[in-house]
Specification:
alpha+beta, 6 helices
């Protein structure tokens, strides 16, 4: 049997519920004795207790929880109604088939869901930006370190070369000779010595 009824959630959201009840008469004679017939038993025994049980249990659930925890809601409703119905009728199962909230509430739920999706999207974008910024910082630090190391290496080479030149003045002339292609200048200023060649013996200053 299906029963439609209206109930309010704990947060005062109205909803139209469709409830299915499966039952059987365990004592048909008692059914006819007490209620006249099976329809009478349904109207006088089952329907009122189903309505009362569903409204009571549904009223203990917030609207969002009723949607999210439908299985738990069904169990609580079933236990409440089964314990309330005694006599020649045996309740086999009770199931809330549908919960239809107002359009306004459903729109508000949709808006909240969209807002939550937008928040998650922005959080994801923020995390992506942070990761990209960290990668950029790491790359910049690596490049800065490479530049610093190259500068230190070049500076060390220059200092070493300067120290070597100061320690051996003849090295300057040697380097000049090594770079000379063996050709004398075609034009020379009178009274000047040949380039790169020191004709005075070492140790003779005269």
């Amino acid at each position: 049997r299906y029963q439609a009824l209206e109930a309010y959630s704990r947060d005062q959201q109205p909803a139209n519920l469709t409830v299915s009840v499966t039952f059987q008469a365990v004592d048909p004679r008692a059914v006819y004795t007490q209620y006249g017939d099976l329809d009478g038993a349904v109207l006088r025994l089952i329907d009122p207790r189903v309505t009362s049980g569903v409204k009571t249990i549904f009223g203990q659930y917030d609207a969002a929880r009723a949607i999210q925890e439908r299985a738990g809601l069904n169990i609580d409703v079933g236990n409440a109604i089964t314990s309330a119905i005694t006599g020649p009728i045996n309740i086999i199962s009770i199931q809330i088939e549908n919960i239809d909230f107002s359009d306004a509430y459903e729109q508000s739920v949709e808006q909240r869901m969209l807002a939550q999706v937008e928040i998650q999207r922005r959080e994801q974008n923020l995390r992506t930006t942070e990761v990209e910024a960290q990668i950029a910082r790491t790359r910049a630090e690596g490049e800065a370190n490479a530049i610093r190391l190259r500068g230190e290496a070049e500076g060390a080479a220059i200092r070493a070369r300067a120290d070597a030149l100061r320690a051996n003045a003849d090295l300057v002339q040697l380097q000049a000779v090594e770079k000379w292609d063996g050709k004398l200048p075609t034009t020379m200023v009178p009274s000047t010595a040949l380039p790169f060649i020191n004709l005075q013996p070492a140790g003779n200053a005269n």
